[in-house]
Amino acid sequence: MIDFTLPEIRRLLIKLVLRAVDTADHIWSWSHFRRRRQHQARRSHYKRRGYPLT
Question: Cα dihedral angle (45, 36, 5, 14), rounded to 10 degrees?
Fold first, then answer.
């Protein structure tokens, strides 16, 4: 997975501090899904263009 980005950290802090509807587990699950999906998209992008995968 990719590292946390500044907007992601900001969003997590806001959601965790001001959580009215979402549970902490839901917030962390969403973050995990988002970072995993970004990693998949990055790999696909590089693979399509012929760059070596790291």
Answer: 140
Would the pTM count as exceeding 0.85? no
Q: Are 27 and 12 in contact (CB under 8 A)?
A: yes
**pLDDT, tens only, 8-22:** 888 888 888 876 677
Residues 32 and 2: their CA atoms lie apart, in Å, by: 10
Instruction: Round to whole Å and give the CA distance between 10 and 40.
Output: 22
Note the residue count of the chain.
54
Rounded to the nearest angstrom, the gap between the alpha carbon of residue 47 and the centroid of all alpha carbons in its chain is: 20
